[in-house]
Design brief:
The structure holds two protein chains of two kinds.
Chain A: H1 2-32, H2 37-43, H3 46-54
Chain B: H1 8-42, E1 45-50, E2 53-58, H2 62-69, H3 73-105, H4 108-123, H5 126-136, H6 143-150, H7 165-190, H8 194-203, H9 207-235, H10 239-244, H11 256-266, H12 270-307
Antiparallel strand pairs in B: 1-2
The chains are: A mainly alpha, B mainly alpha.
Chain lengths: ~55, ~300
């Protein structure tokens, strides 16, 4: 019974710490991946300008 | 117990220590005291600029009168700073302590890996943190709004909506500074007497009892000191506000430091800015005195716990 409780506690604490690690690493990875650049290029017309230049 | 009479060598040593420390103490006192006296002087003048020179008009206490009766933005900043400090310190303490407890349960490899990951936010310069979160919280391209878009929810103006802007800044500060609390708590937990903890695990029925009756009382001095650190640092918040919202929209995210910065550097009201700085200085000094009292009380309770 107590072993089961200890096991559940370990699972809970593991979920908690790895979830928090994701919260720390997630935003940094998103910024480093430059994922926002593509949409900014669409809004500023940069992609459109490139497309027109290729034509 | 009466102290033993001092020998001649001991007296000479004490005198030598006092004399050798004197230059450092004098320089330190001058460097600390001079800006404060300068600030007191400036707060009694109205400073204007003519032909590239500062013109000082003595106005007595009217800068303070203006601050306490007419200045509204500063008091909005005080209110926001208090809300900010109480909220972020509460969340950071709870999260930091919980994470430290959870990491203590992880294996040695997991512990060193997690500690490394958790420390990343405090080693990144604040300017990078501000820029990063500005991109993430952006209304048009931000990560948060992209995730909300995936579930069909509309975009949220995280930094432009006055109802949620302060909450957003608090979230960023919690993200930024929880690792600091985590680090101190982890150091505190690792320094606890492991034999006492092992004995407690045998005696108590649940993890909560162990936490409440053994771990928290033993950790109390660390908890108090960390909390005091965080309270003082949270009253000094500036970079996140400056980079994310510049105090706006309206006065929704105005904080004391930002008000002082704006009055001094943007509005050129040097006398008013000095009065604001002094009032803030006195308030923070009062808090430090209270914090010292809290630390002394925590240490006393720790010592009495050891003795009993």
């Amino acid at each position: 019974m107590s072993g089961n409780r200890a096991g559940m506690g370990r699972v809970f604490s593991n979920t908690l710490v790895w979830g928090y690690a994701l919260l720390v690493l997630g935003p940094m990875s998103w910024v480093l991946s430059n994922a926002f650049k593509f949409q900014i290029d669409i809004l500023t017309g940069k992609l459109f300008a490139l497309h027109m230049a290729q034509l | 117990m009466a102290s033993a009479p001092q020998t001649l060598t001991q007296r000479r040593n004490r005198r030598w220590i006092a004399v050798s420390l004197m230059p450092a103490i004098t320089i330190f006192a001058l460097l600390s005291a001079f800006p404060v006296f300068n600030l007191i002087g400036l707060s009694l003048f109205k400073v204007s600029w003519q032909d590239g020179k500062a013109v000082y008009d003595f106005v007595g206490l009217s800068n303070y009168d203006y601050l306490f009766t007419k200045e509204e933005i500063y008091w909005a900043g005080v209110r926001n700073t208090l809300i900010f400090a109480v909220t972020v310190v509460t969340f950071q303490m709870l999260l930091g302590f919980t994470m430290a407890l959870a990491v203590m349960r992880a294996g040695s490899v997991g512990r060193s890996l997690l500690t490394g990951v958790f420390l990343l936010p405090i080693v990144i310069p604040p300017i990078v943190i501000g820029t990063m979160w500005r991109l993430i919280l952006g209304r048009e391209f931000g990560l948060f709004n992209q995730i909300l878009g995936l579930v069909g929810a509309g975009p949220v103006d995280w930094l432009g909506n006055p109802d949620i802007a302060l909450g957003t800044i608090m979230f960023v500060d919690i993200w930024h500074w929880t690792p600091f609390v985590f680090l101190l708590m982890l150091a505190g937990l690792e320094s606890l007497d492991q034999e006492v903890l092992e004995a407690a695990r045998i005696d108590v029925r649940s993890f909560w009892q162990e936490l409440r009756h053994v771990v928290i009382p033993m950790m109390l001095p660390t908890i108090v000191i960390t909390m005091v650190f965080r309270i003082i640092l949270s009253f000094k918040v500036f970079d996140e506000v400056y980079l994310l919202t510049s105090g706006g929209p309206g006065t929704a995210t105005e904080v004391v430091n930002f008000s002082i910065y704006r009055v001094f550097f943007a509005e050129d009201r040097v006398g008013d800015g000095a009065a604001m700085s002094l009032v803030t200085l006195v308030a923070v000094a009062g808090m430090i005195v209270l914090a010292n009292l809290a630390i002394k009380l925590a240490r006393r309770s720790d010592k009495s716990g050891d003795a009993s």
